[in-house]
Design a protein that fits this description.
mainly alpha, P1 Nuclease, two-stranded antiparallel sheet, 59% helix, globular, binds zinc ion
């Protein structure tokens, strides 16, 4: 299904984007577009709840300001485990714990293990026909899956801090899509598919990300070396505010040198999310969602979510590493 430009622009117009959140634009868009890959029996609920799924795509990042265990769920430093394809790292959690200890695994990130945990939670919510559980877990599962598709979420040099490329994290996952997604990206995607082995699937995506992380860093370095140094950054508008950032010219040049990598990973993230949502629903026995689609979220859930947002807005420092 092709997402029409008008719909895309509509989504951007209705979903507010605080100026201080790198990465939030992408998460909201990815969850929103994933809705349209679902089959009609799911679409009737998800389409109605699209604003919720978009807005709460960023809850796991907000939680990083309040909950210490949250940080490691967003990444995994694959380079800590040797070189691609990392045969030393067991893909099964129990075996990995046995080999490296749980503390050590958490210290280097657990995203490929956390995605199946979230899938189980979503499946359970479908079984119980629990509207709040379905929506919250769908929105948040989407976040972690999207993170797993970002190469720098699989590298200890996640913000170029070891190679004098600080800022590259937000550049790749925020600046590029913010500048190009609306105008240039093609979100013509197939339908969600049933995942026979979700754990293996997400590991494949993580391995692709890890494989690409070297190019993400190297190509930025190569481009910086030949790009006029006074034109790499510029004061340009972002969310209605004039800010110093990677210039449009540098962003477009980098995007071209990456051969559209950001677009490819964004497209795949959307497809993956829809497929995980669909898999949870199938595994729960394909419950009829007609009644749920008529319901509203209860006050208690909305209040809890609001409390988390308030805490996040209060400017508390992040617990764990910055991205
Ligand atoms: Zn994240």
């Amino acid at each position: 299904m092709r997402i029409r430009l008008t719909l895309f622009l509509f989504l951007i117009a209705v979903i507010p984007s605080p100026a201080y959140c790198w990465g939030f634009y992408g998460h909201r868009q990815i969850n929103s577009i994933a809705v349209y890959l679902l089959p009609p029996p799911m679409l009737l609920l998800y389409k109605k709840q699209l604003p919720f799924l978009a807005e709460h795509a960023i809850d796991p990042d907000k939680r990083r300001y309040a909950v210490a265990e949250e940080g490691p769920r967003h990444y995994i430093d694959m380079d800590h485990y040797g070189v691609y394809p990392y045969p030393l790292l067991p893909r099964k959690w129990e075996q990995a714990v046995q080999k490296f200890s749980e503390d050590s695994l958490r210290a280097h990130g657990i995203v490929p293990w956390h995605v199946p945990v979230m899938l189980n939670r979503l499946t359970g919510a479908f079984r119980k026909k629990d509207l709040a559980g379905i929506l919250k877990n769908s929105a948040e599962l989407g976040h972690y899956i999207a993170d797993a598709h970002v190469p720098l979420h699989t590298s200890s040099n996640h913000n170029g801090q070891f190679t004098n490329q600080k800022g590259i994290h937000g550049f790749w996952e925020s600046r590029i899509p913010e500048l190009l997604a609306e105008k240039e990206y093609d979100f013509f995607l197939g339908r969600a598919v049933y995942l026979r082995n979700p754990s293996e699937y997400i590991w494949q995506r993580v391995l692709e990300s890890a494989k690409a992380s070297d190019s993400v860093l190297r190509i930025e370095k190569e481009l910086t070396a030949i790009f006029p140094s006074d034109q790499k950054y510029a004061f340009e508008e972002r969310n209605g505010v004039l800010a110093r950032q990677y210039s449009s010219a540098f962003t477009i040049a980098y995007h071209k040198r990456l051969n559209g990598m950001v677009e490819r990973r964004m497209r795949l993230a959307i497809f993956s999310i829809a497929s995980f949502w669909y898999t949870a629903w199938v595994n729960a026995g394909q419950p009829d969602l007609h009644e749920l689609a008529k319901q509203q979220l209860d006050e208690q859930t909305l209040q809890r979510l609001e409390e988390m947002s308030t805490k996040w807005r209060s400017g508390e420092p992040i617990i764990g590493r910055e991205e």
